[in-house]
Amino acid sequence: MIKFKTLRSKISKIFTENQQMKIVVFLSDIYYFFRKYFLGVEIDYPSEFLENWKNIKKNSSLDKERSFTIYQLINFHNQIFKNEETDIIEFGVSKGSSLITLCKFCKEKSSIYGIDSFGFFAQEIKKLSTSEFDTNYQGSKIAFNNKTRFSNFSIDKLKSTIKNLSEFKNKNLYLIKCHFPHIMEKEDLNLISNKKYSFAHIDFDLHISTLESLKFVIPKMKKSAILLIDDYNFINQEGCKIAVKEFGLDLNKCYQTQNGQLIYFHN
C-alpha cells in the first residue's frame, strides 16, 4: 500500500509551488467548512482578521487557520510587551502574506525583520540547505526560485504595500534578501544579530534552514517571547521536526496546533 506521504510528495511534483499554495488553501477551506457541521465547532473570527485574510489570501502559502494562529499570537504578544519597544523577525517571508499580518497587527514601537531569498539563491539553497530529510525537495527540481514561487513578485512592491497600511504607524520594516546565513551582507547580519526578539516566525520549510534559524534566534529571545514554527507537523516537510529535535527545543514549553504548527514560549 502506498503511504500517503509518498503520494503527497509525488502529487506535489506535478504542480508548481504557486499552484500547490492555492490547492492547500482551497482544500483547507473545504475541510473546515465540513468540520463545522461534523464537530459543531464554529470560530467567530474578528472582522479585522477576515478583512486582512481576504487581502492576503491570493499570495498566501498558509491556509486561513494558520494565518489566524499568527493573528492571535501577535495580539497576545502585544499584551505581553505592550510597554516595550519590540523586535520581530520572520525567517521565510515568501510572498509576504504572513509578514503583512505581523506588520499590520503588531503593536506600535515595533521593528519587523523579514528574511528570505526572494527567489535569488535557489541553487545555493538546494546545495547547502536541503538535506536527506527534505524528501519533498529531492531530485532535480529547484524550489524557491524566481520562475515559480516568486514569478511576478517584487520586493519593493511588498515593502510599499506594508508601509502604506493604515495600521503601520510608529513601526519599522527591514526586508533582507539573502541565503541565511550563508550569503548575507555583513551590515544585514549585524543588524539582526544585535537584537533581542519578542516574536519569531520560522517558515523556512527545510531541515538545515530551520536548524540554523533556531540556533540563531533562541539565544536572542526575550523572556516570555513567542516562537512559531510553521511546518513542524507537515508530513512532506519532516525536516523541520527533525531540526527541532536536533536543536533540543523543550517540547514541554511548546504547544502543537491541529494545523501543523509548533508554538514555543521562551523563559
Q: Could you walk me through the main structural features you see in this protein, from its secondary elements to its overall organization?
A:
The structure is a single chain. This protein is of the alpha/beta class and 267 residues long. It contains ten helices and seven strands. It has helices at 4-12, 17-39, 47-56, 64-80, 97-105, 122-128, 155-163, 186-193, 207-217, 239-247; strands at residues 86-91, 110-116, 171-177, 197-202, 221-229, 254-256, 262-265. A seven-stranded mixed sheet has the order 3-2-1-4-5-7-6, sandwiched between helices. Strand 1, helix 5 (97-105) and strand 2 form a beta-alpha-beta unit. The radius of gyration is 18 Å and the shape is globular. The model has no long low-confidence stretch (mean pLDDT 91).
